[in-house]
User: Fold this.
Amino acid sequence: MELKTKYQYTYFIYPFAVKENKYQKYILKILKDKRFKLKIYEKEKDLRLYRYFSPKMAELLFTSFSLTNKKLNKLNELPKETVSAILAKYPCSIFEYQLKKDIQGKTESKGIFFKIQKLELICFKNGICFLLIKANIENSESFLDVLNFNYKFREIKQGDKISNNFDKIYLQTDTFEDMSKLTEFIESITGSKFETIKLDIDADRFFTYSYVCVNRTRTKKPKRLRRHGLLL
Assistant:
């Protein structure tokens, strides 16, 4: 009997490299992109996250924890060129993409519809960056649909296979018109694969991590199932 899902989402994580001597220029490019906003973490608001890591690690990964309101206000008043120079010296900077809330109407097409919940860019000062996309499929309880979607979406960087992979997968948001527009956006953010390949990083696939709550009708008890997406 086919497994049915009660709740599911997937993180798609794409690592890429920016040449170290071009890192500040890359940060400036992101700052000038009005679709991105520097993500600010606060100890009181994000207390659970802060306590999860050791204080040293928390401030390494989430530099804004150490910034006071006065420093943040001053940072916002500075020219973007100056801010990029400051952020380029921080161990890690995180940017959040401002997704639109309005949703397109569904078409009559049969296939898998999905929605992007979150899109972030995480950059370390050595030039190693991660593009993170959190997504979930809609109007389907099929566990096989989750696996099928994950398998196809992780190949999005393989441009020559896009038309075949996404024949029956539809993006359900007004932020990007369709899969080709999303692919163009990813290419514009991650850039050339040259530096990434030099570090022996797979530049053709996203890493995936899914969380699925599965309803096993045979026992009539919901069972949580954690699945780590592995690149084989």
